[in-house]
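From the pipeline queue, job 12 of 40. The input is one protein chain; the requested action is below.

Action: predict structure.
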Amino acid sequence: DGDVASILQETQAGKIFDWNARESISKALHELFLAHQNGTPAPWKGKAELIQKYSRKELTARMVELLEWE
């Protein structure tokens, strides 16, 4: 699994599948459809406080810190 899989797992913001995992993909889509139909949040909505550290603003600030010299 790669960086994206690690981030999705850490933030609980989604799932990642092998390209040929038809049954798992179908089940996940069905879960999302049922949640939408019932007006409930997605089963893996994610944690906003964890997702925030991957925002463009936060990543840019971290890059600036790395590039600053004194």
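Job complete. The two ends are 38 Å apart (CA to CA).
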